[in-house]
Every structure is written in structure tokens, then in C-alpha cells.
Specification:
5 helices, 37 strands, 2 domains, 514 residues, four-stranded antiparallel β-sheet, mainly beta, Methylamine Dehydrogenase, Chain H
Length: 514
């Protein structure tokens, strides 16, 4: 789906053909210097310093800051519009809309933007979204077109490599509404130094491994879709040495690893499932239980289905952070989800002797669950229950796909403590962690997690990434999609900035270190 944006820093290990080897690793000070530098004494507390309202729904989905011109470029897909708004951010306390870049000449909606070295890259879907899309590159000072290249269907997220030599687009390849056309999900690598030449990668090489990958939690379930058609790339993070990229396959519940030097997909990591029947993972699954934030244990497995990711190293291992939003396929030709209380969703009487109780609306009856998992013996009833989303952020080993850390139900509980828990969404993915960024402030590494339904960003100290520590709750606009961090060395006011763009109300908020 058309989602979010991040700025990232990280150093990683690179995969060879059969095994991994460790590359030289930069330390945090070197990473901070490369990102613009920070004072070791800079505060890690953020406060709102400015905001700008760019219009109605769709006006501020994703944004990208250019440190050379001090401009913020913001996706604007409001009704009747198809453009990139340009905002003067030289004074973060008083952002000013100065112009816009029309995108209609290049196709349909613009889904994502990213800036590097005075170049603005935009991911633009075709007017017919199942057709190949475009990546357009503009000069951030003059707005002149630099290059336009054809990529895969529905380019949904775009980013540069940290060295500026490559542009990546995650081409989701969603089906048409009738699910009669399903283009390949692909990743395009654009070589800036080679006249913006394009290499587009698909996942057909993994089709022979489909059974093993599915057994580990990868989802391949689109009607009449081949393996390569079913993969839907969502979001990309690139290592600081520009050698490796990781791509979320959101609907498929996986992360793929790409070797940039060979321009090849090397691995797919199935993410498995989260056990909501553990106390630490307790959830509120009902919007009709007469209470807000009634977190209890339930015999349900969560499908992580991450949206945004970021990468940062720890002791030579690339740690891949994911915002576990969840996402169901809901098209006229195929609807994946159903409410557990629906009479056609039959629970196995042996596995669930208390099925009638579970199906009560005050318990699990309202919970949206998938029809595509859980009938383990193929007899037509469900032996296990699977629901979309992890209601959390996670950290994965970027070399192996192993789960290192999950925030359990901490985001839900923090939302409740701040009177921002979206009880009306309890039955459907709760707070929906979606946007994500990592930044270095002073001598600490911070993680920013945007929650689409809580209208907020949670800030965590990940200096010790094995034990993230919650720092702060920041309220933002409605439906935050883009979460971007600007280091102090790149910032107009010499302080770290957090820029949060929200697509429902069109508001961009700027937070700065205090």
C-alpha cells in the first residue's frame, strides 16, 4: 500500500553467494559525522517548534528535507492534485509553502520522495497502476528535470543509497481491483553514475523455495498468482556503506536482502508469527467490550507484516528495525479478512472448546482475522487464529532474519497512558506502527516510531539496541505516514529535527531537540 518514508543510518555485513562475511564497520561517531554530526551534549528531548497545514486528506503523506537548499519536499495527492509541494524550512519554527512541482506529466499519483546531494527523486505510479511506473529526478534548487526512468508497477517507496550512487524503488505490484491482473512485485536499482541506468529485480528465482519459506511464515496466497507476482515490496533500507539493502514484503510477512554490488536478491527472511497468548503480548481485540485498552491474553497469532524499516549496526551485525503495521488484501476480487464472530469462520471444536465464548463481540468476535491461515488439517475449520499486525516494532538480524527484540505491547500501553489509545481500532491492528526513522542525537541513537492510528510518534533510546528504552511520546497530525530525522549538522537551526507528515489532515509538524 502507499505508505511512509524514513531516514536511516547503519553499517552492515554483506552476503556472499553462500555465506556471509564481515565488512569493516564504522563506529557511531563516524556514522554521526557522515550524517552531518551532532554535539555530544545535545538533548534527546524533543518539542514541537513549527507546523504547516498543506490541505486535506492526501496532502502530506511523505516528506524529504534537503540540507543544501533548506527546503522540504512533500507529497501532495489531494483530490484533483498530483504534485510535490515545496516548503521553505530555513526557519523550522515558521515553514512557508513556496511552490510545487507538478507530477501529472509523469503518470499518476506520486507515492514517495527522497533527497540526496541536491537531487529529489520521486516514485510515481502509472495512471493504470498495474502498468510500469516512473522515477523522476529533479534539481532541488531549480526544480529542473534531471532524469526520468521506467521502473516496475506501483513504485511505492523511494530512497537513495547513502553514497548517492544508487536510487532504489520498491515497486509493490498490487493487483487490479478485480484481481484479474497482478503484476510482478519488483525492486528497481537506478545507477546514478551510469546515466541513471535501471536494473529491475523480481523474486522468480525463489519460486522453488516457496514451500520451505511458507513453512517458516512467508505468506504466498494471492489468487492465481505466481510466487513472483505475489511478492509485494513495500519499503527499503540501505546500509551506510551502500553495499546491502533490505526490503519489506509487507503482505507476505517477510524481508528480502539485496546485494547492491551484484544487483541481486540474495535472501528472503520469513518473519513467523507473534503469540498474543503471552502476558507480555496481551492485546485488546474488541471495540465493543465496554472498556478502553482492555489488554488480555488471547489464543491468537499476530502476522508482523512490517511497513517501514531502518538499519543500524550492533557489534558488526546489521540490526533491521521494523514497524509491524500489518496489512490485509482487500479487493473486489479477493477479500482476505473476516471477523472471527462471522458464522462462516468455524473454529475447530477440539482446538477451541470454548468457541462460543471466543466468538462473543466483547471477546474475539469483532477481531479481523485472515481466512488464509489456520486450517492446519485442511478440514474446513480453523485450528489456529491469525490476525494482521504485530502492534509493535521489532529488531531482526539482517544476516539471518532471526528475531532479536520485539516491543511486545509497549506501544499499546504507552498510547493508553497518553490517552491516545484508538479503541475503535482494537479489532483491526490497533495503533498501527507504520513510519520509522533512526537518528543520532548527542551520543545516543534514537528510534522514532510513527503510529498511524494513535496520531503520534514514540521515541526510544536504542544506544543499547538489545534493550530499547522508551523516552518520549510526541503527538502529531492525524494519520502520520512520513517520519524523517534531520541531524544537527544538516539542520537549519543547528539542532536535530524530527519531521512528521500526516496524510489524513495534511499537517506537517516539526519537532526539535530542546
Amino acid at each position: 500500500m502507499k505508505k511512509t518514508y524514513l531516514l536511516l543510518a547503519g553499517i552492515i555485513m554483506l552476503a556472499s553467494c553462500t555465506k556471509t562475511f564481515q565488512e569493516p564497520q564504522a563506529n557511531d561517531e563516524e556514522i554521526a559525522t557522515a550524517a552531518g554530526g551532532n554535539s555530544n551534549h545535545e538533548s534527546t528531548t524533543f518539542g514541537e517548534t513549527g507546523m504547516i497545514d498543506l490541505g486535506a486528506t492526501g496532502a502530506a503523506e511523505i516528506s524529504a528535507f534537503d540540507p543544501l537548499t533548506k527546503k522540504l519536499f512533500v507529497v501532495n495527492n489531494t483530490a484533483g492534485n498530483n504534485r510535490i509541494d515545496v516548503v521553505d524550512l530555513s526557519n523550522p519554527s515558521a515553514p512557508v509553502l513556496i511552490t510545487n512541482i507538478p507530477v501529472a506529466p509523469y503518470g499518476g499519483l506520486v507515492n514517495s520522495v527522497y533527497v540526496k546531494n541536491g537531487k529529489l527523486a520521486a516514485a510515481i505510479e502509472a495512471i493504470i497502476k498495474t502498468d510500469p511506473g516512473k522515477v523522476a529526478v529533479f534539481n532541488t534548487g531549480t526544480y529542473d528535470e534531471i532524469a526520468v526512468r521506467t521502473v516496475g508497477a506501483l513504485p511505492d517507496m523511494i530512497t537513495f543509497s547513502p553514497d548517492g550512487n544508487y536510487i532504489f524503488s520498491a515497486n509493490e505490484g498490487e493487483p487490479n481491483d478485480a484481481y484479474t491482473i497482478d503484476p510482478l512485485g519488483t525492486v528497481s536499482i537506478i545507477d546514478v553514475q551510469d546515466n541513471y541506468s535501471v536494473t529491475t529485480l523480481d523474486f522468480s528465482g525463489f519460486a522453488s523455495e516457496a514451500a520451505q519459506l511458507k513453512a517458516k511464515g512467508l505468506r504466498v496466497f494471492g489468487p492465481n498468482a505466481s510466487f513472483a507476482q505475489d511478492m509485494e515490496p513495500e519499503y527499503i533500507a540501505v546500509s551506510a556503506n551502500s553495499n546491502t539493502a533490505w526490503v519489506t514484503l509487507q503482505e507476505n510477512n517477510g524481508i528480502a536482502r539485496i546485494d547492491i554490488r551484484t544487483k541481486s536478491i540474495r535472501s528472503i527472511f520469513p518473519l513467523g508469527f507473534k503469540n498474543f497468548n503471552l502476558e507480555m503480548n496481551a492485546i485488546d481485540p474488541s471495540d465493543q467490550d465496554g472498556a478502553v485498552g482492555l489488554f488480555r491474553q488471547w489464543p491468537v497469532k499476530g502476522i508482523y507484516c512490517p511497513d517501514a524499516i531502518a538499519v543500524h549496526p550492533n557489534n558488526g551485525i546489521p540490526y533491521v528495525y521494523s514497524a509491524n503495521e500489518g496489512d490485509a488484501r482487500e479487493w473486489a476480487g479477493f477479500v482476505e479478512n473476516i471477523r472471527l464472530g462471522n458464522a462462516s469462520y468455524i473454529l475447530d471444536p477440539t482446538a477451541f472448546p470454548n468457541a462460543a465464548t471466543l466468538k462473543m463481540n466483547s471477546n474475539l468476535g469483532r477481531l479481523n482475522v485472515t481466512r488464509t491461515l489456520g486450517d492446519t488439517d485442511g478440514d474446513g475449520d480453523y485450528d489456529e487464529i491469525y490476525a494482521q499486525g504485530g502492534r509493535s516494532f521489532s529488531i531482526w538480524n539482517g544476516n539471518t532474519g532471526e528475531l532479536i527484540f520485539d516491543s511486545k505491547n509497549d506501544l499499546d500501553k504507552k498510547a493508553f497512558a497518553n490517552n491516545k489509545y484508538p479503541d475503535s481500532r482494537s479489532d483491526d491492528k490497533s495503533i498501527e506502527p507504520e513510519g520509522m526513522a533512526i537518528g543520532r542525537v548527542g551520543n545516543r541513537n534514537l528510534l522514532f516510531v510513527g503510529m498511524e492510528r494513535a496520531d503520534a510518534v514514540a521515541v526510544y533510546n536504542i544506544t543499547d539496541p538489545d534493550s530499547p528504552v522508551f523516552l518520549q511520546w510526541l503527538n502529531c497530525g492525524v494519520g502520520p505516514e512520513g517520519v524523517a530525522f534531520v541531524a544537527a549538522g544538516d539542520s537549519p537551526n543547528g539542532k536535530g529535527l524530527l519531521i512528521v507528515s500526516s496524510e489524513v489532515d495534511g499537517i506537517v509538524k516539526i519537532f526539535t531537540t530542546q
